[in-house]
Structure formats: C-alpha cells, structure tokens
Amino acid sequence: MTPFAEPIYVTSPLLPPLEAVMARLADVWASRWITNNGQQNVLLEAALRAYLGVPALSLFNNGTIALLAAVRALDLHGEVITTPFTFPATPHALAWNGITPVFVDVDPVRLTLNPRAVEKAITPQTTGILAVHVYGLPCDVDGLQQVARRHGLKVLYDGAHAFATTVNGAGIGTFGDMTMYSFHATKLFHTAEGGALACGEPALREQVDRLRNFGIIDPETVESVGLNGKMSEMQAALGLAVLDCLPPEIAARKALLALYRRLLGNLAGVTMLPDIPGIEISHQYCVIRIDEERFGCSRDDLHRELKKYNVICRKYFFPLCSDYACYSELPSADPANLPTARTAARQVLCLPLYGSLQPSAVEYICEIIGALHGCVA
Ligand SMILES: *Cc1c(COP(=O)(O)O)cnc(C)c1O
Predict the structure, then answer these.
(1) Is the CB of 253 under 6 A from ligand 1?
(2) What domains are defined for the chain?
C-alpha cells in the first residue's frame, strides 16, 4: 500500500467561499466599526442563539477567555471538580482564577465526568463542577445536576466539542449554569479564533458581557475585575459566512462517520463512540478506541504506522491533564484516583474528519487500519 501523496490531517477548517466573506467584510468596512459589539456581532449572536437553542449568548474572542469569564461570573473559588480527560484550557481556566482543580474519574462509556465520583470528591471548599462534553458526547447532565443541587454547587460546561449536540431536542447549552463554546479553526463551527458563553439564566448574561469588556459599566464606572474578551467584527463576519455552510458540512461529516463505522465497526479491538438514544452528537471528531490485546497492536503503534502513510491522527486526550507538570503534584492527580480516564487516554485515537475529506480517502484509511490489524511489531 502506498502512502497518501499529501498529509491527511485530523481536521481541516471549514472555509466558506471567499466572495461570501468579502461581501460581509464590505459591510464592516462601510460601517467603519470593526470591534466592540458591531453589527456583525449582533447578527452572529442572534443567529447562533437560534441555531443552538439557547436563551442568552455572549460572543468571545476565544473559548479559553470565555471560560475564564464564566468562572468569574459564577463566583467559583476554592475547589472545583473537573475531568482530567480534556484539553489543557479546562483546568487552566480554574488555575488562572486561583482555584484548585480537583480531578475525578470519568464514565467508561461516555468518557465524561462520573457523577458518583464527583459526589465523593466534594469538600467544604468545593464551589462548582466544570464538566466537559468530550467529543460532543453530552455528560450525564441530569446526574451532575442532581449532585450539584444536593450540595449547592454551580455547574459550568466546557462545550468546546459540542456545538450542535442536542439531548432529546434540547440544545446542549441549556444545561447547567453556563456552557462555553469554542469557535477555534479546528472546531466544527469556527470564527478562526472565537468562542461564546451560553447562560441558562439570562440575568447572568449582563454580568458576562461586563466581564468581557473590562468590567466597564459606563465611561466613568468600572464595577468588576474584567478582561478583554470581545470578538472582532472580522471574526463575526467570518462566522456568519461559516454558519451558512454548516448544513452541508454536517451532512458530509455524518456520511463519513457512517462510512468509518461501517468499515471499522466490526474490526476486533476497535470501538467507536456509543450511539445513545435521544442524543444528536456534534460531528466534530471521529474517535476510535483500540484494545491492544484484541486489536493486536497498541494505539501508539497504530498512530505511528498511520503517520508512515501520511495519515496524521491525534491522541486526544493523551496525556491526561492530571499528568501535566503543573498539576501532577495535586492529590487528586494520583493515577490510582483516575483508572478509567487513564485507560481511555491510552486507547483513544482521533481519525481524520472534515466535510471536504473524500469518502475514498476514508476507505483507504480504513484499509490501512485493517491491514495493520494484528500485524504491527
Ligand atoms: C478547543 C478547546 C478549548 C479551547 O478553546 P479555544 O477557543 O481554542 O480557546 C477548551 N476546551 C476544550 C475541550 C477544547 O477542545
């Protein structure tokens, strides 16, 4: 088998027709208003509110800053319980706010925070839960809400993977106190760099908007220690053009995911993400888990071998955040505390998935994986 002539990356940004972006930029130029809640921001915010089915939404310059502001707006402090199986931005948003992240283990199927493990980790210092809808699979939102209610905790969701996820028809951003979205170029919907916060409680939105703009209330009044989280008009214009292209992008990804499932689903030692009734997942990632014993080689072997064929997969999420030098000394980072997350981190591999990826490329990638099955030294 010959390698792909060009590298196939795990993702490729959705690029709308350049003319569509230029037409919107022409409006921005004509207005001479390039940031600070201009017309493109107003339009994108409204369009996304409708698309995501959330009552209130604030756009941000990126998802990490949105998360920092959410932590502040919810007055989280002391300890916050979170998952080690995520991108560094999740625990960093806590640590940057002077909060101690407390890592607990994940559910073996969804790979999201396990509500029973969360409840066991609560101390008098705990003020909230920061959970991640990893790969766009929703957390056990009811289970987490019950724990939060019993103990008076806030629930903040990192929904960076969960743009179009719905649970029984409800947008993922309607759960918990707030949900962060990331609009980074690598995500399903993007503004090159960008993000947003959805608030279940519309009153919170005002506070979020103030934090996003230095804590300024009016030209002579600054109320709180805010930051600069504003999205520029160029980003919002790009986002509006990307949003127009989203339906065919999602349809193409759905078809590719079905193809992966058909070609890999019966391969011994390969598990795809679970199909859960009532849940429409975002189509941001194609994740497989490799059971080394049954597959015949490890995830790391497969990752390395695929690279030889110019297929550049990613080990999302390895290592666990709890293994980063900045967190590994925390008591909750003890490997014995996180066995399920540890196993997952050793098994997961994200395969290429984006709308412009050719079905024939997916077929060839699956052929390569099939050929490596059981025969890598
Ligand atoms: C991408 C990502 C973020 C960070 O979002 P940015 O918009 O890049 O700041 C946070 N959490 C998770 C889980 C992510 O995948």
Answers:
(1) no
(2) 18-244 (3.40.640.10), 246-372 (3.90.1150.10)
